[in-house]
Amino acid sequence: MGKVTIMKKSVLVFLSVLLLLVAVPVSAFELTGDIWLLSDDQEQETNETPLSYHGELTLLGLGPVRAIVGADYNGKDTDFIHFFNLLFGKVKPESFSEYENAFHLIGGVNGRIRVDWPLFNGLSVVGSMGHRYAGSTYKSAGLTDYQVTSSLYGGTIYAAGLSLELMRGLVLSSIYEIGPSFSGVHETTGEGTWKSWDVGVQYRIPFFSVKAGYRDQHLQADVDSFSLSGVYFGAGIHF
Predict the structure, then answer these.
(1) Does residue 9 lie in a domain region?
(2) Cα-flanking dihedrals φ and ψ of residue 190, to 5°?
(3) How far apart are CA 189 and CA 38, in angstroms?
(4) Could you tell me which residues come within 8 angstroms of residue 11 by beta carbon, excluding any fewer than 6 positions away?
(5) 111: containing domain
(6) Of 12, 18, 20, 198, which one's alpha carbon is 20 to 30 angstroms from that of 149?
(7) How many domains does the chain have?
(8) How far is residue 230's CA from residue 52's CA, in Å, rounded to a whole number?
(9) pLDDT: is 116 or 143 the higher one?
């Protein structure tokens, strides 16, 4: 009798979970990336290149809730190794001895849970919470007499905004993100604050998407600070 009761409960739980999965849309993968055209006044301080790169990967989506990881990179395509060294606290000044000109790399990674809660007539309120790391590596000019400064900060981030579906597949959104208390990571000391704003439009068709907009990011910290802003254009795939 006890075994029958347990079996009935197990079947009931299984059917409830199955019903939930059928009733709530589930997405397992979405990858988007964009090229970020920085404002002209920021070219000199970012390796004399006006390009920056931004990418996001949706690991799981359940109804209005999504788990997302993302990354930002500003620097030359050949300098990715210094980006990873920055994140893992392995920056070595001697590795920059071959660079005669000034070197400046900016980047970061983040992970967050985002909710797009529908209100009415295609309007949704957007909210998210997660963690972000952001920092930079700077080398002054010169082959022998130079100085390398590296800093990385991390902290909890919060975001809020609105999205509006203008037509089927076409969504306009505006999201503001803050990190009120960032702390130094690895050997970085001090504290900082983070803020960013992203307004853009995305058009989705089955399996593919394109997007464009304007992005603004600011890290204000004790050791090093940076500000990046400009328009971006990107594309993505989803299943």
Answers:
(1) no
(2) 95, -175
(3) 28
(4) none
(5) 30-238
(6) 198
(7) 1
(8) 10
(9) 116
Tell me if 161 sits within 8 A of 175, measured CB to CB: yes
The letter for the amino acid at 227 is S
Nearest residue to 212 via CA among 232, 238, 235:
232
- The per-residue pLDDT for 178 is 97
Does 17 fall in a domain? no
Which tokens is 86 given? 């920055």
SS (H, E, C) 73-116: EECCHHHHHHHHHHHCCCCCHHHHCCCCCCEEEEEEEEEEEEEE
- The model's pLDDT over 76-131, given as tens digits with 9 standing for 90+, comes to 877 888 888 888 888 887 777 777 777 788 899 999 999 999 999 999 999 999 99
Q: Does the pTM of the predicted model rise above 0.85? A: no
CB atoms within 10 A of CB 219: 24
CATH code of the domain in which 72 resides: 2.40.160
Average pLDDT over residues 22-26: 48
Closest to 83 in 3D by CA, of 56, 115, 61, 108? 108
C-beta of residue 133 within 8 angstroms of C-beta of residue 152: yes
Answer yes or no: is 146 within a domain: yes
Of 135, 43, 132, 156, nearest to 91 (Cα)? 135
Counting residues of the chain whose pLDDT is more than 70, the rounded percentage is 82
Whether the CB-CB separation of 106 and 226 falls below 8 Å is answered with yes
Q: Could you tell me if residue 210 is inside a domain?
A: yes
CB-side exposure of 218: number of CA atoms within 13 Å? 10
Distance CA 46, CA 33 (A): 20
